[in-house]
Structure formats: C-alpha cells, structure tokens
Amino acid sequence: MGFLFLGLVAGLAAVERKGFLQAMLSRPIALAPVAGWVLGDAAGGLVVAAPLELLWLGAVNLGAAVPVHEALGAAAIAGGAVLAGRAVGSGVTPEVAVLAVLLAAPVALLGRRADKAVEGWNERLARHAEAALASHRVAEAARSNLYGLAAPFAIAAVLAPLSAWLAEALIPRLLAAAPGAAGPLRVGWFAFAALACAAGAKALRSRAAPRLFFAAFAAAFAALLTWRLLG
User: Fold this and answer.
1) Is 18 helix (H, G, I), strand (E, B) or coil?
2) Which residue, 22, 47, 151, 229, shows the most beta carbons closer than 10 Å to its own?
3) Tens digit of pLDDT for each residue in 163-181?
4) How confident is the model at residue 213 (pLDDT cuts 50, 70, 90)?
5) Residue 41 — φ and ψ, nearest 5°?
6) Distance between CA 184 and CA 147 in Å, rounded?
7) How many Cβ atoms from other residues are within 10 Å of residue 30's Cβ?
8) Rounded to whole angstroms, how far apart are CA atoms 95 and 60?
9) Contacts of 179 (CB under 8 A, 6+ apart)
C-alpha cells in the first residue's frame, strides 16, 4: 500500500510541476516530507528535503528548458530513505540517506529523458486538439488535454516507487555487508549536503552568493564544533 501512495504522490507532483497549478508544491523541500508522510515518516523525508532542494534549486521549468526531474528524484530518494531506514530499524540516518541519494538520484536524469519524450507526445496532442476544435468537437479537445497530463503522471507513478523499492532492497544489504562503512558514509552525507549548498549558491546567480555560502558554512561548522565540545 505504501508504494501505491508513493506513486500517487509522485504522479501528482509530476503533473503539478509542469502541467497544472505550478504552485511549487512539487519542489523537494515540500515534496520529500509529503513522500515520507505517506510512508509513515514525515521527519525522515524532511532529512533529505533541504539538501535536495539546494541541489536542484536551479532545476526550474522555464520556456523550452528541460531540467532534471527534481520532483521524481525527490520522491524516489525520500521514499527509498524512509523505507530503507525502516528495514534497517534505525530510521533515516545519514548513512541511509546518502545511500538513498546514490541509488535513487539517477532516476531524476531518467525523468528528464522521459520529459523530452512527453514534450513530443504533447505536441501531437495539441495538433489533434486544434483539429478537434476546428471541427467543433470540444469534448474531444478537452480529452486531449487530459491525455497530456496522464503521461507525466504515469511515468512518475511507476519510476518513483520502483526506485524506492530498489533502495529499500539494497541499502540494508549494503550496510550489513560493510558495517565499517557507516562512519565514511556519515561523512559522505555531510559532504553531499555541502555540495548541495554550493549548488544552491551557484543557482542564485548573485555576487553575494559565495560570501553568504561560506559565511553559513563557517557558522554551521562553529555550531557543530561548539556542540561537540560542550557535549
């Protein structure tokens, strides 16, 4: 049942992202906690939400641009992290999160290729709708619009649960096979978060962005160091 709900959320996000509403509800910062929530762990989804939002901050649909499918990637990663964390029994830890990113993030690139194919499909549907309207077949033209929304929904509804299932199946095995890798994986998660911050700063395209990024990094490092010393 969890995979069904995850597929529904991912499919609706794919439609909202480009075909209907476009209220930014499909952005990773909003979508990842929802994906975790439908699987019973909104907090686990929130763990990956902020880094993914920063990583894909520049992935926006403007004109004919076809960016990586950040909604599909976020749903797959959040779903995979929550399910794998539950299978391990630890919840979404840094080790689980970074492995979920490594295993499920490529689906965002696959989603971009699917988007390109859908664009061609939609062009044919648009021509068909125009012909239907010219012949006063209004209902048929309206159905063509719905068909255009069905393709991105179906693609995301299948690929997100599939990727999450793959993460759920592999992550516990990987952690069990290499228990000594927990430390390096934990460091890898924080390295990924730092990379995401850098990507977000670059996407801002502001002269002040590098200064703000390094200031935030220094503040976070100082806070972490203080916490370790006091703890």
Assistant:
1) helix
2) 47
3) 999 999 999 999 999 888 8
4) low
5) -150, 80
6) 47
7) 18
8) 29
9) none
Quickly list H helices, the chain: 2-18, 28-38, 42-55, 70-88, 94-104, 106-134, 138-177, 182-204, 209-230
Q: What Cα–Cα distance (Å) separates residue 141 from each residue in 18, 19, 24, 122, 152? A: 19, 16, 27, 13, 19
Q: What is the mean pLDDT of residues 80-90?
A: 94
Sequence-separated contacts (24+) of 188-193 with Cβ below 8 Å: 188/94, 188/98, 189/94, 189/95, 189/97, 189/98, 190/94, 192/51, 192/98, 192/101, 193/51
pTM to 2 decimal places: 0.82
First-to-last alpha carbon distance for the chain, in angstroms, is 42
* Reduced 3-state DSSP string for 99-129: HHHHHHCHHHHHHHHHHHHHHHHHHHHHHHH
User: Can you tell me the distance from the alpha carbon of 104 to that of 76, in angstroms, rounded to the nearest whole number?
Assistant: 6
Quick one: tokens of 104? Answer: 């499920």
CB of 30 closer than 8 Å to CB of 59 = no
* Cβ–Cβ under 8 Å, residues 20 and 149: yes
d(CA 166, CA 131): 44
